[in-house]
Amino acid sequence: MMKNLLLYLSSNRIANKAAKKFGRRLGADRFVAGDTLNQAIDVVKQLNSQGLRVTLDHLGEFVTDPAEADQAADEVIATIDAIAAAKAEANVSLKLTQLGLDLSYDECFKRMKRIVARAVEQNVFVRMDMEDYARNEATIRMYEALDDVYSPHIGIVIQAYLYKAGEDMTRLKQRQPNYRLVKGAYKEATTVAYEHKTDVDENFKQLIFAHLANGHYAAVATHDEAIIQATKEHAKQHHIPVTQFEFQMLYGIRTALQHALVKEGYPVRVYVPYGVDWYGYFMRRMAERPENLTFVLKSMAKK
């Protein structure tokens, strides 16, 4: 019940507006690198110095104004340029709804072309995040169109809680895609998504194994130690080199585990969000792990 409530609040505009009055005193500082790109680049440099790779995400979603979508595209391009200037081990992640997907597919595609063209110039990889099911097919179609021109600088996300995840992987297999494989963080109907964690976990493992068997690069995004261990054992058993996959985790979560994996010789990439539009992202992190909500409540009590 608490998870469903938090997921509902994550997309509630009234709650978003109310939360911003408190700023990140709610506890979002633990999960968000700062308001500005300069603050985010400082965090990237710090993480790189610890042997951690990074993907930077300028926070924002569900944009309803074309000018705001254009501004978001400009910010992503600035992020790409900043990564290149800093010679950082980092790529970028973005959401299509921040670039106006809900306003116009064609205009969103134009913004994406501008972004990925700059990424090719700067030799920076761009990951298209996957949002809720209603936008799944449009995201895949845009990935296919961009990959036709800009491969291998563009990647996408596959969500294990969706029944169609395996079909999507088969559809895209010939492209030799670079996936981020995740469980999924949105509230979806049982007609399109697995309801029980055990089913999601099993599908997640099968997707990881299948993608690795195809010889394609896999970014395994999870904090679940059972999934991480299963991936490590599968890779060893099938002689899959660590250059073919990486583990990805969120900034501010399971930091000790991130460092432990690096010491073991596994590539680890930290998903680092920044920007003022932090509310939706923050609420989904609360929904994913009850421990995160406990941390926030303790932090608020100390203010």
From TrEMBL:
Is this entry keyworded Transferase? no
- Catalyses which reaction(s): L-proline + a quinone = (S)-1-pyrroline-5-carboxylate + a quinol + H(+)
Please list the residue ranges annotated as the Proline dehydrogenase domain: 42-296
Entry's Gene Ontology BP terms: L-proline catabolic process to L-glutamate
Pathway annotation: Amino-acid degradation; L-proline degradation into L-glutamate; L-glutamate from L-proline: step 1/2
Q: Which residues bind substrate?
A: K95, R284, R285
Q: Where does FAD bind?
A: M130, Q159, K183, G184, A185, K197, T222, H223
Annotated GO MF terms: nucleotide binding; proline dehydrogenase activity
Q: How is the cofactor bound?
A: Binds 1 FAD per subunit.
Name the keywords, alphabetized: FAD, Flavoprotein, Nucleotide-binding, Oxidoreductase, Proline metabolism
Q: Which cofactor does it need?
A: FAD
Q: Which domain of life is it from?
A: Bacteria
Q: Does the keyword Flavoprotein apply?
A: yes
Known EC number(s)? 1.5.5.2
Q: Which PANTHER family match?
A: PROLINE DEHYDROGENASE 1, MITOCHONDRIAL (PTHR13914:SF0), PROLINE OXIDASE (PTHR13914)
Q: Any idea what this protein is called?
A: proline dehydrogenase
Write down the species. Answer: Aureibacillus halotolerans
Classification of source organism: Bacteria, Bacillati, Bacillota, Bacilli, Bacillales
